[in-house]
Amino acid sequence: MANSKILTAEQEKTLRQPIEEYVGKIQKEIDELRKDGTAKVIMYQSRIENVKRDKTLSKGEKDSEIASCQKELEQAKAVASHVLAVRHSLSFCMDTC
């Protein structure tokens, strides 16, 4: 029975610990990236809508502000897309590992 393939709960915990630490580290990185991705996407989308509704700005000011926000929005979307890809690959790894 010394070569048994069945793990005790303690053996399983010991084997899973490095994996869980690695996943935790990646999750922290994802959370940090999310600040520059998803949160900023929402912020810039909201800012663009507010500028469109602002009656005190001239057309030129609106266009300029919207163009600036669009540029930042595209960068934030790229980060958000990267975060989703990382999360997907992490979830795939956890399902298959």
Concise description?
With 97 residues, the protein is mostly helical. The protein contains 3 helices and no strands. α1 packs parallel to α2, α1 packs antiparallel against α3 and α2 packs antiparallel against α3.
Structure in words:
85% of the residues lie in helices and 0% in strands. It has helices spanning 9-36, 38-53, 59-96. The mean pLDDT is 84.
Which short descriptors sum up this protein?
mainly alpha, rod-shaped, 97 residues, 3 helices
Strand content: under 5%
Kindly, what is the distance between the CA atoms of the first and last residues, rounded to a whole number of angstroms? Answer: 26 Å
What gyration radius follows from the Cα positions, in whole Å?
23 Å
What is the number of helical segments per DSSP (H or I, 4+ residues)? 3
- In round numbers, the mean pLDDT is 84
Structural class: mainly alpha
Morphology: rod-shaped
Q: How would a crystallographer describe the biggest sheet?
A: none
Number of strands: 0
Uncertain stretches of 5 or more adjacent residues: none
Please provide the ordered H/E string of secondary-structure elements.
HHH
Helix-residue proportion: over 70%
The oligomeric state is single chain
